[in-house]
Structure formats: C-alpha cells, structure tokens
Amino acid sequence: MGAHTVDGPVAQEVGIAGALFQPLKMIPTPGGPVLHMLRPDSPLLPDFAAGFGEIYFSEVLPGAVKAWKRHSRQTQLFAVPHGLLRIVLYDDRPGSSTQGVLCELALGRPEHYGLLRIPTGVWYGFAAMGGEAALICNCADIPHDPAEGERRPADDPAIPYSWKGAVQAGGR
Q1: SUPFAM superfamilies given for it (predicted)?
Q2: Hey, is 126 helix, strand or coil?
Q3: Domain locations in the chain?
Q4: Strand (E) positions, 61-101?
Q5: What is the C-alpha to C-alpha distance for residues 112 and 11, in angstroms, rounded to an integer?
Q6: CATH superfamily of 14-36+53-152
Q7: How far is CA 56 from CA 7, 67, 78, 120, in A?
Q8: The pLDDT of residue 1 is above 50
Q9: What are 92-143's pLDDT values in tens digits?
Q10: In whole angstroms, what is the distance from residue 7 CA to residue 87 CA?
Q11: What is the rounded distance in angstroms from the CA atom of residue 35 to the CA atom of residue 170?
C-alpha cells in the first residue's frame, strides 16, 4: 500500500478483483488529528450511486477474531480510525480473475490509515493487532439484511488461512 500524494490519494488494487485501498488524509491539529474517511469524489464509490445504506462502528478486542463473512449484494468500505487490524480477504467467486487468491493486509493508524473496498462475494475477516482494541468503521451501500450475508467459522478449512499467528504475540 502506498503513501498519500500531494494532490490527493488514489485507489490501489490489493490483489483481489474489485478490492481497492485508498490512503486517507490525516490532518494534524494541536488538539489531535482530523481523520478523513469519505468524500463523494472517492474512487471507491462506483457501487454507491444511490448513496449509502448504513454506517456503523465495530470494536475489535485484543485476541478476538471476527471471521468469516461475505455478502451477496453488499459492497463495504472499511476504515480503522483507532488501533490496527489485520484484515484477510479470500476470493472464491466462480469466474473471478482472482479466484483462490488470499490477501492479507494491515489497516489502521498511523501507517495504514485508509479506506478498503470489499466487493460482493469476497470472504473477509479481521483481528486486532498490537495488543490493543481497534475500532473499525463500515460504510455499506445497502442497509443490513441478514438474508444476504453468509458466515463461516474462523477455522473453516475451506478458507486457507490460520488466525492463530494473527492474534498471538500482538498479531505481528
């Protein structure tokens, strides 16, 4: 994942078709930084033509793993304004150019602050890194609908990833 540019960040592919990362601005102020998250001119918004469905925050405690989940209709935008998360994506979509690819990345402050776009049909999970809680913000293009989400346990053998190393010794 790259650094900010003077004229504004650009979207970068992260190894799975449709999954993109856009570095976000952090503006230092005497009382603490201002953290940008979303603007209407973001390159990650093509699926958000009708606006957004909902925005919510989820706290991830040290040692906790929130995995696996995917959506059949929902596109998600993740930002981590507090703490650091290890986020893992897995693409098992039939016909996808990246079918079978697993992508692991860090998201959070200060080095990895940005917006991550997770397309429909891609499995994802995350765990806090560094021994402290993290806060993730999820902006979805449609309101939550339990009927369109699918879950699997964190240790599901169909997804080739072990969370054991991600949550031990600070997750690094």
Answers
A1: RmlC-like cupins (SSF51182)
A2: strand
A3: 14-36+53-152
A4: 65-71, 76-82, 84-91
A5: 14
A6: Jelly Rolls (2.60.120.10)
A7: 29, 17, 10, 18
A8: no
A9: 999 999 999 999 999 999 899 999 999 999 999 999 998 999 999 999 999 9
A10: 28
A11: 25
